[in-house]
Amino acid sequence: MSTKNYLFKLIIVGSAAVGKTSLLERYVNNRFLEDYKLTIGVNFMSKILEESDFKARLVIWDIGGQKRFEVMRTEFYKGASGAVLVFDLTRMETYTAIEAWLNEVRQFAGEIPFILIGNKADLIETIGRVIDKQYAEEFAQRENGIYIETSAKTGTNVEDAFTAFTRLIIKS
Ligand code: GDP
Ligand code: MG
């Protein structure tokens, strides 16, 4: 049996400081940086995901907060196979913003698969849960996406999120 090979462009979006860059750092380089460094322009990270039944090269585009350059935004969304939507489990406004992010993705990239990620799960213990898990799950399902809670800091669920999402893209 021959394994299938894929090449996917993914984009990662969400409000400032939800942990987009940290999730990629954890997933691609398996490390975590405490200090907050604003992402300027667009970063790319690439990872080869090898499973028993497929091999996929993921090229993940990470954009900073500045939306001044329309050209950059168009390039960012162009040809994306999937979108990673991230919010911070401890900040309600970042969850509320998800609907607008999904609309923007669909406007510029069309009806592509998405994964909704509630990040900073490690903080729930101390800060408390702000966004109901079932609520976020139902939203994702209603919009044909999947939902997962992660911590870029501890690494919890980060790999599983990208593996599950890649499988979703392959079968859609
Ligand atoms: P971005 O603006 O969405 O790219 O967010 P960053 O990746 O730059 O992260 C913003 C801040 O949140 C940084 O100080 C990170 O160290 C921190 N951070 C990111 N992910 C986590 C997480 O899972 N847990 C905790 N406790 N902090 C996180
Ligand atoms: Mg960033």
Short characterization:
This protein is an alpha/beta fold. It is built from 7 helices and 6 strands.
Provide an overview of this structure.
With 172 residues, the protein is an alpha/beta fold. It has one domain: Rossmann fold (3-Layer(aba) Sandwich), CATH 3.40.50. It is globular. It starts with a strand and ends with a helix. 33% of the residues are buried. Bound molecules: guanosine-5'-diphosphate (GDP) and magnesium ion (MG). The site of magnesium ion (MG) has 4 residues, from helix 1.
Tag the structure with descriptive keywords.
about 170 residues; alpha/beta; Rossmann fold; 6-stranded mixed beta sheet; 7 helices; globular; binds guanosine-5'-diphosphate; binds magnesium ion
How is the topology of this model organized?
Blueprint: E1 4-13, H1 20-29, E2 42-50, E3 54-63, H2 70-77, E4 82-88, H3 92-96, H4 98-109, E5 114-119, H5 124-127, H6 133-142, E6 146-149, H7 158-171
Parallel strand pairs: 1-3, 1-4, 4-5, 5-6
Antiparallel strand pairs: 2-3
Magnesium ion binds next to helix 1.
Q: How many distinct helices? A: 7
Largest beta-sheet details = 6 strands, mixed
Beta content comes to: 25-35%
Q: Residue ranges: pLDDT <50 for 5 or more in a row?
A: none
- CA distance, first residue to last residue: 22 Å
CATH structural architecture: 3-Layer(aba) Sandwich
